[in-house]
Amino acid sequence: MKMPMRLSAAASPAALMISTMMFSSASAATYAADPASSRLEFTGVQAGAAFKGVFHQFTAAVDFDPAALASARIEVTIEVKSEDSGDKDRDDTMRGADIFDVAHFPTAHYVTRSITRTATGFSAVGALTLRGVTKDVPIEFKFASAAAGATLSGTAELKRLDFGVGRGDWKNTDWVADAVKVAFSLNLKPKT
Amino acid sequence: MPNQATRYSPVAQTFHWIIAGLIIVQFVLGRLAEPLPLGVHKLSLLARHKSVGMTILILAVLRLLWRLWHPAPPLPAGMTRLERIGARGTHMAFYVLLFAMPLTGWTMSSAKNYSVSWFGVFTWPNLIGKNEAAFEFLRTTHDTLSGLLFAVAVLHILAALKHHFWNRDDVLVRMLPFTKTARRSQ
Which tens digits make up the pLDDT trace of A46-64? Predict the structure, then answer.
């Protein structure tokens, strides 16, 4: 790996911290997702047409070394009210009591339990807590080291009704599909 | 002109009556959905409204193409100049609205960031990006045009009945399937 010469030479406290992390990263690769450049989105199907939404606010803590998967761990905490599907009416409805009920369940949480290598990347099994219900959700992802951290991107698929996301009329799956796709792309920075 | 058709062809009649029926369905679905709050009931009504609307758009394209190659039978000779302009104008307005209604509806769905599905079989591309101001404008336009369509349809029906019962010509019968044009057309 190329040394960050310019950063060390700059001798600012931040640069020193980054270069310290670079030296120690071989033993403990712990990262946090950079909020501005990371993305967590979902795709639902409504009346036969797909729609996309994102969660603007979430934090991700990642311990990941491809050579030490036994100790690897991905943990994500999501501010559910930061959901944004590109339409205020739909977002207000989704934040309401019958769907996400953000007043009672403001955060969702995901933490992996085991991570294994696959032909194309990695897969993990983890527990998702959403709307007060905890259930296992598998994810598939790729991990790549970068000069100043790493990227972790992948997908998951879950059934919204497993978590009670949709009560009353919204239990209907003819007009709002049960299956929801999730895609994430985390820009990981060494944790300070 | 002895060889000129005095009746609408079966193809023209089929287009006319299928589209007329679908437009009635559209009025009912649209009026039922409009006052509802966002919910499954509204979504289901609007999903059908959009699917039927896109069906009308497809039929309008086919009908216009067909019409360009197959002129309508001539109007009765006894009609005044004003009546002819009225008839021509009404039919032109129908063709414009057959495109304008689904296109404003499709665009307004796009502006609201709700893609239009065709009976869940496939999804039409969004015509424009999310734009709340455009949505409000298009919704008003769609609503106003639906009122105009209603008015033109009432005029059209009254005119057809007037031709049939007052003038006693074949203007109505020549668009009716399973009939024969027994009355004089001139």
Answer: 999 999 999 999 999 999 9
